């Protein structure tokens, strides 16, 4: 929060760079702690779904408000808004808690070290998944402009996609829980992601852009609670979930760089094909991993 507030009063790059680095460190640490806490709960898929829904709703609203804030208050308006949100999170800390030792799910402390291959495969799946997400997300605005939308319209549709369809995907995961097992959520989310990115780059109309953006957001955040839930099932202490966060961050960094190398002239089709391949590869890992974790499940309502 302090780094964001200080950013409001600096204008030189040599001060801006370390401040954004400090802010990123704090945000990453907080996110890792929340992932570990969700993993240690009795129903991690439920908690990941709720956390995702809140984060996406916040991101969607901020995406819609950002143009107005920038025009009216400049960059300081964005930084001040983020600082207020961070302060709200700090005030909520007294109400957070981790499961008691007797309630938390039992698991050997060396479980990840004893069976490293399943965890490595799941981490690879997360890296592939977010490499595809990063490749598309970095160029989604350019794809919308190429389809005939203005930059403002693209921002509006991306914000609506996250706010409506992303939140809906997470809430659906929260509602269903493990009632349909672990395999089908992977097939639905990753299969839909693959179809959505291909539709995005091979269609060139504003309507197709809006529809495919909504499907991308829905499939992304419907599947994420289950993917993080598989990591939590392998390591309820949260180490695998934190590593999964590292893989997702790495994928979001690698995806845009790889996509930029695939860009041919004004055509974004190679980027969509690349993202689709990443999703299919992730699906090939996720389905066997989910089957190995299969167990008798009932509808979870809590």
Write the layout of secondary structure elements.
Blueprint: H1 2-7, H2 13-39, H3 44-73, H4 75-91, H5 111-114, H6 116-146, H7 151-176, H8 183-202, H9 206-234, H10 239-262, H11 269-292
Helix pairs in contact: 2-10, 3-4, 3-7, 3-9, 6-9, 6-10, 6-11, 7-9, 8-9, 8-11, 9-10, 10-11
Protein described:
The chain has eleven helices and no strands. The protein is mostly helical and 302 residues long.
Notable characteristics:
Growth Hormone, Chain: A; mainly alpha; disordered C terminus; 11 helices
Give the overall form.
globular
Overall pLDDT metric: 84
Most strands sheet: none
Low-pLDDT runs: 100-115, 296-302
**DSSP strand content:** under 5%
| Number of H- or I-type helical stretches | 11
Structural class: mainly alpha
Through-space gap between termini: 34 Å
Relevant CATH superfamily? MFS general substrate transporter like domains
In the CATH hierarchy, what is the architecture at level 2?
Answer: Up-down Bundle
Helix content: over 70%
Write a compact overview of the structure shown:
This protein has 302 residues and is mainly alpha-helical. It is 79% helix and 0% strand. The protein has one domain (14-92, 114-292): Growth Hormone, Chain: A.
């Amino acid at each position: 929060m302090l780094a964001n507030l200080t950013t409001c009063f600096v204008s030189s790059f040599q001060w801006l760079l370390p401040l954004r680095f400090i802010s990123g460190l704090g945000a990453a640490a907080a996110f890792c702690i929340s992932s570990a806490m969700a993993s240690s709960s009795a129903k991690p898929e439920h908690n990941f779904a709720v956390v995702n829904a809140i984060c996406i709703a916040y991101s969607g609203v901020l995406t819609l408000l950002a143009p107005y804030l920038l025009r009216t208050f400049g960059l300081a308006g964005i930084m001040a808004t983020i600082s207020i949100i961070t302060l709200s999170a700090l005030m909520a800390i007294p109400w957070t808690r981790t499961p008691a030792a007797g309630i938390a799910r039992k698991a050997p402390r060396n479980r990840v070290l004893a069976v490293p291959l399943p965890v490595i495969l799941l981490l690879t799946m997360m890296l592939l998944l977010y490499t595809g997400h990063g490749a598309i997300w970095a160029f989604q605005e350019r794809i919308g402009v190429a389809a005939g939308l203005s930059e403002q319209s693209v921002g509006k549709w991306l914000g609506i996609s996250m706010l409506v369809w992303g939140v809906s995907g997470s809430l659906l995961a929260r509602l269903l829980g493990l009632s349909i097992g672990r395999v089908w959520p992977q097939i639905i989310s990753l299969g839909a992601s693959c179809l959505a990115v291909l539709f995005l780059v091979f269609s060139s109309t504003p309507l197709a852009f809006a529809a495919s953006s909504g499907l991308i957001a829905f499939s992304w955040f419907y599947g994420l609670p289950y993917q993080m839930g598989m990591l939590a099932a392998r390591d309820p202490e949260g180490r695998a979930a934190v590593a999964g966060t590292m893989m997702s961050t790495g994928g979001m960094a690698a995806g845009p760089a790889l996509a930029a190398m695939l860009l041919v002239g004004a055509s974004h089709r190679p980027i969509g094909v690349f993202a689709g391949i990443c999703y299919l590869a992730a699906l090939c890992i996720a389905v066997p991993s989910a089957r190995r974790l299969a167990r008798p499940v009932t509808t979870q309502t809590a």
